[in-house]
Amino acid sequence: MRLALVGGGKMGEALLAGLLSAGWAEPGELAVVEAVEGRRKELADRFAGVTVTDEVPATEGAVVAVKPNDVEAACRSIAAGGASRVLSVAAGVPLAKLEAWLGDGVAAVRAMPNTPALVGSGAAAIAAGAVAAEDDLAWAEGILSAVGTVVRVPESQLDAVTGLSG
After folding, report:
1. Cβ pair 139, 129 in contact under 8 A
2. Is the full-model pTM beyond 0.85?
3. How far apart (Å, rounded) are the C-alpha atoms in residues 95 and 114?
4. pLDDT (tens digit per residue) in 102-133
């Protein structure tokens, strides 16, 4: 699997639609991990060919798009799936926590997209974790640019950028 979107809520769905529309990946290369059975059915019906499941599959990379209270469990499941890089769009969860939950060697990028991303006109700021390299940032930019504009900032500026872009 090329990418698993962990969380099939509004932001996860918007990213999935944007990635497919932009040609970032073929449906068979993408998975959505969603805990709620009814929501899984909605996503499977809307996005033919995309794997929709309740467990994180083995994957190259993952996007964390769950509520803040669910981020730790999501990160631990992603790490077990072997992802080498992770983009988190979970609000308020700092890189230090993401990296601790993901374990050594997993490149983490934190992002704060705004709600216009839901209609493909968003703006997102991204910040690199300790082991995230240039190609990890470019990967994260590629994902988020499918739903809007992306800028790189230090993590300390993420909240300010989010406030301005909202």
Report:
1. no
2. yes
3. 19
4. 999 999 999 987 654 555 556 788 999 999 99
